[in-house]
Amino acid sequence: MTDNQVGLVKALGFVAWADQKITPEERAVLETVMSALAIPEERRRELCESLRRAPASITEIAAEFDDDVERRFAVAQAVMLAGVDGEVTEEERAKIAELASAFGIDQDELEFIYEAVDATVDAFPAVFTG
Fold first, then answer.
1. pLDDT tens sequence across 76-112
2. Taking phi first (over 0 means left), then psi (-120 to 50 degrees means alpha), and beta for anything else, what does residue 55 get?
3. Model pLDDT, residue 106
4. Fold adopted by 3-129
């Protein structure tokens, strides 16, 4: 397990908290991500307990990452998480923009990430909608 992996979970939690709660759909995505990353059970419990209280700070999240590719991947995953319920709200967009800014991603690149995620979802709808 790397800091980037823990950072990804924290970044997703940060965006999930945009509306002051984590929905069941968002919770399912977080659980799937932690499973896919093979985060050990004890660390998963710690992360979940932390996320139940509040999201990590943007400074804490940014400090977890040491790789630009991983930062961009985290933002793309945050966009996907935000859309899990069929709509990306303004609050979610604001949190994603805050995350991107903390990672050194400018507005043009962020828009490119949104477009790439949209194209992926459009190309593989069964994967994203069940």
1. 999 999 988 878 899 999 999 999 999 999 999 999 9
2. beta
3. 97
4. TerB-like (1.10.3680)
Tokens of 26: 């968002």
Question: How many other C-beta atoms can be found within 10 angstroms of the C-beta atom of residue 84?
Answer: 17
With beta carbons less than 8 A apart as the criterion, state whether 96 and 15 touch.
yes
Task: Round to whole Å and give the CA distance between 45 and 52.
Answer: 10
Hey, CA dihedral for 100, 85, 46, 35, is it positive or negative? negative
The span from the CA of 120 to the CA of 122, in Å, is: 5
31: number of Cβ within 10 Å: 12
Domain range annotation of the chain: 3-129
Nearest residue to 12 via CA among 40, 87, 28, 101: 28
Q: How far is CA 51 from the centre of its chain?
A: 13
Give start and end residues of each alpha helix (H) in the chain: 3-16, 24-36, 41-53, 58-64, 68-82, 90-102, 107-123, 125-129
Query: Tokens 């990430």 correspond to what residue?
Result: 113
pLDDT at position 40 over 70: yes
